[in-house]
């Protein structure tokens, strides 16, 4: 598919709304105008990022089954998108993620054990046991605090981007939302602001085809794609194969450059599939067609990048096995460390008095009194 | 009579209301095919078809806004907010629209809708799956606000809410969906089948909105509460052998002032309990009301025990939740004063 | 401009987003595919409706200057849209209007004196003095209670339309919003619902180029038109000359027939100009370019229809003068009657006890007690 | 010192804050070119350019949401809701986001924003231009809620609010924008230039958030109030020659409990006044707090005088508004009890 100039007219980009940006073909070759300029090492780093996410998710699901954590949400099948976009953006940029972008943190090199501490809500939890597992916050790594409320982060990302532009900064923001949550009102708030102020922001919609039990149609309505929404605001919108690491990298880079060049917002609809359950509280067998994952036309992102590297002569089964082993070991030892700091399940958690911190910058009198009562 | 969980009782209320009145429609996020994340609407789509029970896009304002339009047309929509914590996007439609429509149009239009929402903590839900926002509704003229505490009441009150001519906000403390939580999270869960209020009459019955229920009679002090804390209060009173009269308010607005006053006049002491943050919580209204109407009968200050003025924390849930220990201590404090 | 079939593919209708449906040309001839099938009498009725709105507005502004009413909002220059759409729809249909669709009531034959009673908030006010002037409610005339809060009516209209469809009824709903308020979140709520459930609703956006002091660009952002928004949801969207009574009639009829034939929602962007101040509380001289009204390319709707009728040989200066006189007299006597029932300014208003009615269907105890205190 | 209206004082506060700190940005509906429908931001765009003060699309959620994002970036946004009645679409962003950001991220991010809004009645605005929604903010942990009553305070408090590290909801009773309304709508308006609190110091000063102001000292009873009713209370006390101590709370959360308790301990009697609907209004919190802390000093029931539990009616505005007649009667009632 054609790769438009950064400043291509929105009417021309518009035609891409119903097409699909891809780089990796079915044989693992990188083809077409969107092939990103990535070294073999960078691709191997991408593979490692995705495999780390997957191994991390698997370990956390196991921890949940073991009764060690209260809740978890995996990104199985969607790893390429966040991993690639993180590598395509720059330090200083700010992501406003949902709960399914652990790939952003992992690809940014955020300490795995910190993520686990958060999930365990243990004594070392950087969020002091306040948040549900996976609702990370990591300013240092360009990762905005995740909210439990859907869509609120979308206009916040636009505001952050506006602020950067107002200050003459080149940092950009990247907003994330699921296709289901794009039905929320704040999606509109963000698009209105982004369109009016031409904010340097990437507006990601991760279309993994499910919103808990509800198929994408309920949010999409009669339009053919979610990318259409962008066109309603003359925001250039493209649809990208979200299971194609190279396409994800290239599209993110294109959108980021547009933003950095003051060409305004870009909306990206990522096509992928939620292969697992919505969360550990969910039982998809009740609502989900059997064999959906196998029948989904876009193959697994880890497999596709691996195949590509093998075709390039940069990878083989031994190296893959070694890498897998290395990652699994790293995850396992991180978990051992995190687990040693206790968990919400074991009751080794931050002290109750800490609950009153950070409600305000300074503790007001009524919270001081209440804290004293907890101490009683 | 059938032993039911609160989920089953709510489902049953829907079934009966939908059968009796074909204007009743039910929708919300994951409510149709799946039957709701707490399964409160399970079976409705199968039984009544997807014109009567259906899934909605994830947009709480659209759900309530459309419900108001449907009600103005003549239907009786009963919609679900997936969690009470997610009602905020719909708050404008509830407060500025549903609550005021009859008044502003001088009765030309009305909005007989029910907005159901699972509320409260106790399930390690963190700050966005644990809130009790009832005070944000009780301040709004035109709304009726209900908080249920058991299967028997839930069925009868939901049927009454659906039949009501005006908008009803219907809070369902999720911690008591499956059993009467006594506040001891470290003990096994008692199922509703072991509790008298889990015995639910078959078929139709309605419990009038605006009537409190004396959950336990007593003469030493009056406990005003609702939802999960009804059971916690009972536990605390039993554990400390305190002769507390526990009033389950059930409907917060309109409030059953007579039952409250009668009890406080009798006991002379009053404890107010809820899970929501204490400042400007509904407990403040209860305390103010009791003070205004029973001033000369009060032998001790009215005490409020409630959630702290912080977001509901995930790991420190049991330090936040007003459990039997805190409630029991407060009872003794009121008695000692 | 082409008039598409009712069930034309949205992609084809899409091209009309940036065009303008017109019927009346600059000489007052009705030309093209959109010419509606309207008798001369029907056109004269339309002229009368618009002139009545204008005379009504003028009288109310005078009443405000006279200190008889507290607030008013006129529709000067926008009369054609609501007047024509009311006549194009059927009894039983329901409009969800904003404060600038008095034309709907007048064209529906709602008693003028009742409108004035509402504006005066007098003893005969059908809304019992509860609402700000012009926030009418008239179920009997297919007019939903107007809210002071922008945009909330939009998803309500969709819900009403869904209910009608669910009950197998052929009544349709019509939602109204200003171009400025289309930036509000509930606009999105309505479009999502309408697109997903294909509700039989007309989604009107009255683009009168101003939202109080803010030009339309702030709400529109980078897109060329507000009709674009519809396309983002695959909701057929057309732009119509809102100062052309015949185009307004034809477009409304087309959209209504689409809805009634179960072909779903239609979005109409009406191009017009707010010729007056936002409201009697507003002073546009601070923000508004001089001569904007004269320079606006779409001529006055009353003048254009009059010219057309003259060209048809159905109208002349004498008849026009007579009609104007008749209308002004009617308005004047209606006002005399309404004014005789008192007003918020004279203090002759509904009794304080009535304030407690209709908060609920039945008066609850606490309101009974409060009512007794007012009586004290 | 310059004699200023409250509008001018608010404008001045903006000017000074923007001059001292280039991170301060101001936006909202009609706020930029026009300077706001109440003209509180007039001149800012001209002076600081449209990158510092600008118009926003009509979307309150977008305004507050963007402000939160800007604050997270490092700016200090001060935004206007055109009327307090129109803050509901932004309520989710205020309550779920701004209020909780610091806590949920354990200080990683914060949201130092100010959300200004003209509130209250008295201008024949009907139900959607007259509301006083302060109680909907005071129930939310993490918010600071300010209600101003005069130019002097408005300037100093707004500067403090902009400098504050956390979100501040700043209510401006529009009825006192141009003069200290005494509650007698049928008498000529007194301008601020005739009132000592209309004398505003030039240049920078900040009034700490969380401190009440004793508006009038007295020994017979304590009146707790804020906003417009401060002046009504003063009028009522003067008219009936009652030695009332009137406390202008200024900040509702955090509340200046010391000043309140000190006064009630002294007078033994307390009247609570606000314009918002009475049920679950902030008056309930005040009544509950006073009762808890001064129980043994109270010689009479605490009385609340507030708006009725109805929407604010247009024509019956003066039957709804707690004017000097109702307030004066309540003072006598409290004294007689
Ligand atoms: C305001 C709000 N409404 C509802 C929810 C409950 N909820 C959590 S996730 C979810 C589904 C979201 O689906 P989607 O946006 O497609 O994201 P995905 O889970 O597929 O990544 C829902 C309804 C919520 N968190 N916030
Ligand atoms: C939720 C909400 N926000 C703000 C306002 C204040 N307000 C009233 S009318 C208006 C401008 C609306 O402009 P537009 O939608 O273009 O309609 P027009 O006045 O041009 O007919 C504004 C901002 C309001 N009524 N409701
Ligand atoms: Mg999804
Ligand atoms: Mg307009």
Distance between the termini of chain A: 67 Å
Outline of chain A? globular
Q: How many domains make up the 3D coordinates of chain B? A: 2
The order of strands across the largest sheet of chain B is 3-2-4-5-7-6-12
Ions, cofactors and other bound molecules: thiamine diphosphate, magnesium ion
Strand content of chain B: 15-25%
Number of strands of chain A: 7
The main sheet of chain B comes to: 7 strands, mixed
Output the number of helix runs of chain B.
12
Low-confidence stretches of chain A: none
CATH topology of the largest domain in chain B: Rossmann fold
The whole-angstrom Rg of chain A is 21 Å
Average residue-wise pLDDT of chain A: 96
Q: Could you estimate the helical fraction of the residues of chain A in percent?
A: 40-55%
Detailed description of the structure:
The complex is a heterotetramer, with 2 copies of chain A (376 residues) and 2 copies of chain B (337 residues). Chain A is α/β, with parallel strands linked by helices. Chain A has helices at 10-14, 40-65, 79-88, 102-107, 112-120, 153-166, 185-197, 217-220, 227-231, 245-260, 292-295, 301-312, 317-340, 365-375, and strands at residues 94-96, 173-178, 201-207, 210-211, 214-215, 237-241, 266-271. In chain A, the strands form 2 sheets. In chain A, strands 1-2-3-7-6 form a 5-stranded parallel beta sheet, with helices on both faces. In chain A, strands 4-5 form a two-stranded antiparallel sheet. In chain A, helix 2 crosses helix 13 (317-340), helix 5 crosses helix 13 and helix 6 runs parallel beside helix 7. The mean pLDDT of chain A is 96. Chain B has 12 helices and 14 strands. Chain B has helices spanning 6-20, 44-48, 60-73, 91-98, 101-104, 135-138, 151-163, 228-240, 257-267, 282-294, 317-320, 324-336; strands at residues 2-3, 24-28, 53-55, 76-80, 114-119, 144-147, 168-173, 199-200, 213-216, 221-225, 244-248, 251-253, 270-277, 303-307. In chain B, helix 8 (228-240) links the parallel strand 10 (221-225) and strand 11. Chain B is globular. The model of chain B has no long low-confidence stretch (mean pLDDT 98). The C-D interface holds C 70-71, 121-122, 125, 129-133, 135, 147-150, 180-181, 183-186, 211-214, 218-219, 221, 281-282, 286-287, 344, 349-350, 352, 354-356, 359, 366-367, 370, 374, 376 and D 29-30, 33-34, 37, 55-62, 85-86, 88-89, 124-129, 278-279, 308-311, 313-316, 319-320, 329. One thiamine diphosphate sits between chains A (100, 148-150, 178-181, 208, 210-212, 274, 278) and B (29, 58, 82, 86, 89).
């Amino acid at each position: 598919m054609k790769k438009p100039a950064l400043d291509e007219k929105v009417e021309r980009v518009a035609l891409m709304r119903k097409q699909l940006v891809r780089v990796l073909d079915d044989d693992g070759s990188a083809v077409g105008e969107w092939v990103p300029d990535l070294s073999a090492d960078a691709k191997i780093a991408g593979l490692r990022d995705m495999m780390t996410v997957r191994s991390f998710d698997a370990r956390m699901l196991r921890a949940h089954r073991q009764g060690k954590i209260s809740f978890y949400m995996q990104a199985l099948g969607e790893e390429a998108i966040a991993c690639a976009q993180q590598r395509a953006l720059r330090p200083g940029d700010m992501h406003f993620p949902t709960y399914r972008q652990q790939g952003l943190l992992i690809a940014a090199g955020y300490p795995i054990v910190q993520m686990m501490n958060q999930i365990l809500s243990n004594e070392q939890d950087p969020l002091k046991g306040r948040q549900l597992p996976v609702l990370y916050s990591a300013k240092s790594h360009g990762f905005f605090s995740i909210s439990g409320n859907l869509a609120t982060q979308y206009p916040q990302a636009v505001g952050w981007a506006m602020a950067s532009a107002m200050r003459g900064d080149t940092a950009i923001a990247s907003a994330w939302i699921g296709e289901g949550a794009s039905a929320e009102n704040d999606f509109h708030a963000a698009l209105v602001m982004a369109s009016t102020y031409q904010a340097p922001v990437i507006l990601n919609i991760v279309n993994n085809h499910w919103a808990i039990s509800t198929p994408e149609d309920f949010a999409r309505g009669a339009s053919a794609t979610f990318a259409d929404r962008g066109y309603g605001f003359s925001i250039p919108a493209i649809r990208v194969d979200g299971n194609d690491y190279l396409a994800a990298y290239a599209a993110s880079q294109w959108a980021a450059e547009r933003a950095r060049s003051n060409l305004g917002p870009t909306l990206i609809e990522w096509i992928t599939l939620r292969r697992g359950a919505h969360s550990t509280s969910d039982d998809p067998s009740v609502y989900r067609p059997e064999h959906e994952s196998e029948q989904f036309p876009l193959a697994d992102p880890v497999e596709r990048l691996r195949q590509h590297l093998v075709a390039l002569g940069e990878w083989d089964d031994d190296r893959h096995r070694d890498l897998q082993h290395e990652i699994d070991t790293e995850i396992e030892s991180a978990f051992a460390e995190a687990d040693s700091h206790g968990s919400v399940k074991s009751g080794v958690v931050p002290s109750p008095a800490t609950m009153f911190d950070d409600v305000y910058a300074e503790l007001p009198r009524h919270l001081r009194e209440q804290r004293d009562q907890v101490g009683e | 009579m059938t032993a039911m969980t609160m989920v089953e009782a709510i489902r049953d209320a829907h079934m009966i209301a939908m059968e009796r009145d074909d204007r009743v429609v039910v929708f919300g996020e994951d409510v149709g095919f799946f039957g709701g994340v707490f399964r409160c609407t399970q079976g409705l789509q199968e039984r009544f078809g997807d014109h009567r029970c259906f899934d909605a896009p994830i947009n709480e304002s659209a759900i309530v806004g459309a419900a108001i339009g449907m009600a103005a047309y003549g239907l009786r929509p009963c919609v679900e907010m997936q969690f009470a914590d997610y009602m905020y996007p719909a708050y404008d439609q509830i407060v500025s629209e549903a609550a005021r429509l009859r008044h502003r149009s001088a009765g030309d239009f009305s909005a007989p809708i029910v907005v159901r929402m699972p509320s409260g903590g106790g399930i390690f839900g963190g700050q966005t799956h644990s809130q009790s926002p009832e005070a944000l509704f009780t301040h709004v003229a035109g709304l009726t606000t209900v908080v249920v505490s058991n299967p028997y009441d839930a069925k009868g009150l939901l049927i009454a809410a659906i039949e009501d001519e005006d908008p009803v906000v219907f809070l369902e403390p999720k911690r008591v969906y499956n059993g009467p939580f006594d506040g001891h999270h470290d003990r096994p869960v008692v199922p509703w089948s072991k509790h008298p209020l889990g015995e639910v009459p078959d078929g139709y019955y309605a419990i009038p909105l605006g009537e409190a229920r004396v959950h336990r009679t007593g003469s030493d002090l009056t406990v005003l509460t609702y939802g999960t804390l009804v059971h916690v209060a009972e536990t605390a009173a039993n554990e400390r052998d305190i002769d507390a009269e526990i009033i389950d308010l059930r409907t917060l607005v309109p409030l059953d002032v007579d039952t409250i006053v009668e009890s406080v006049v009798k006991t002379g002491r009053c404890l107010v309990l809820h899970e929501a943050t204490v400042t400007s919580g509904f407990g403040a209204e209860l305390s103010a009301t009791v003070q205004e109407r029973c001033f000369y009968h009060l032998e001790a200050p009215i005490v409020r025990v409630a959630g702290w003025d912080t977001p509901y924390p995930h790991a420190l849930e049991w330090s936040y939740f007003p459990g039997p220990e805190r409630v029991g201590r407060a009872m003794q404090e009121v008695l000692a004063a």
